[in-house]
């Protein structure tokens, strides 16, 4: 299922247009989201960071509406805040860079591999496709990733005098974090699906709106207790209709990242949808989830240690950021 990700084409973040100096029509101009000490944060930067969450929201809210707009703005504001904070810390790092400080390329490579595994089901091409939609090069994405890692390193160094975590704190943080640290590429799911195409070749009077209304009606019946398998046999337009829509032992990488994020976060037995993609509308019900293995504590102890220290120093970190903000010139353009 290939869910539509507007990303940077959302009106909220869409680039502006201007007349070409050669008179050849309108050309794209990337909007400025904010400036920090005269350095630009663009709408493209914000949109790229929002990408996975925007895709999930677009799938979850086919009619968009107030709740979609509220959650979208919440995501956008949080991303913009993180980018502003990142630029503030990068300003501090650039002073050290003049004295030879640097971040090895291999560290950036490892982080991108982690993102591909956790956000794009282990498929590098899906990341490249997403970058292409946002008209961002891999080199630009690497630079964004590099800056993210530098910010993490600066924070760790700034507060390296924090009290060492106790064994009980390490164990508690590992139990809390291990699900998010698991190998999601090995997640497996059994689920039922009803698919209603956007365009019905057998009904020339059907429109995307009437097809969505049909999907919404089916979802309502299912939530009221109708038999999923029977409705799938009657109404679904995909290859699994005759099996009551049941698909078993489906690896996470076989699903689009947005669809996978929604399904694997759902409760077993819950009816989900309708979800939207370019081809149509999907109603799903999770039957069983088998999550990929979590790494043993011995493999991630350093990361868990850092998480505990970060929590212990969060108040001091917030004060540090506020000090950097008070000395900086920040102008937020996106409202």
Choose one word for the global shape. Answer: globular
The number of domains: 2
Q: What's the total helix number?
A: 11
Mean pLDDT: 85
GO molecular function, one term: peptidyl-prolyl cis-trans isomerase activity
Organism: Haloferula luteola
Protein name: peptidylprolyl isomerase
Catalytic activity: [protein]-peptidylproline (omega=180) = [protein]-peptidylproline (omega=0)
Report on this structure.
This protein has 335 residues and is an alpha+beta fold. The protein folds into two domains: 176 residues, Orthogonal Bundle (Triger factor/SurA peptide-binding fold); 107 residues, Chitinase A, domain 3. Helix content is 52%, strand content 16%. The chain has a four-stranded antiparallel sheet with strand order 6-5-8-7, with helices on both faces. It has a three-stranded antiparallel sheet with strand order 4-3-9. Helix 3 crosses helix 5. It is globular, with a radius of gyration of 23 Å.
């Amino acid at each position: 299922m290939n869910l539509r990700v507007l990303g940077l084409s959302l009106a909220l973040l869409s680039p502006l247009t201007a007349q070409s100096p050669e008179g050849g029509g309108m050309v794209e101009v990337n909007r400025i989201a904010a400036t920090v000490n005269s350095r630009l944060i663009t709408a493209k930067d914000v949109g790229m960071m929002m990408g996975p969450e925007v895709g999930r929201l677009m799938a979850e809210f086919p009619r968009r509406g107030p709740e979609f707009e509220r959650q979208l703005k919440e995501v956008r504001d949080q991303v913009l805040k993180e980018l502003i904070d990142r630029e503030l810390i990068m300003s501090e790092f650039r002073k050290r860079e003049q004295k030879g400080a640097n971040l090895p390329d291999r560290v950036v490579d490892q982080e991108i591999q982690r993102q591909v595994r956790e956000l794009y089901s282990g498929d590098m091409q899906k990341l490249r496709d997403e970058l292409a939609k946002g008209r961002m090069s891999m080199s630009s994405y690497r630079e964004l990733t590099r800056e993210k890692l530098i910010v993490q390193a600066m924070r760790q160094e700034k507060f390296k005098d924090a009290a060492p975590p106790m064994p009980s704190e390490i164990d508690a943080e590992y139990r809390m974090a291990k699900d998010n640290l698991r190998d999601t590429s090995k997640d497996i799911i059994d689920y039922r699906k009803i698919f209603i195409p956007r365009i019905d070749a057998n009904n020339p009077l059907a429109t995307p709106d009437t097809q969505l209304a049909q999907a919404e009606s089916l979802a309502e019946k299912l939530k009221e207790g109708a038999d999923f398998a029977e409705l799938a046999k009657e109404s679904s337009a995909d290859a699994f209709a005759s099996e009551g829509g049941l698909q078993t032992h489906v690896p996470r990488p076989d699903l689009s990242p947005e669809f996978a994020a929604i399904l694997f976060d759902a409760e077993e037995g819950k009816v989900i949808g309708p979800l939207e993609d370019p081809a149509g509308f999907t109603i799903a019900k999770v039957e069983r989830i088998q999550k990929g293995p979590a790494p043993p504590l011995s493999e991630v102890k350093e990361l868990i240690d850092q998480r505990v220290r970060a929590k212990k120093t969060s108040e001091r970190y917030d004060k540090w950021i506020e000090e950097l903000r008070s000395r900086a010139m920040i102008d937020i353009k996106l409202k």
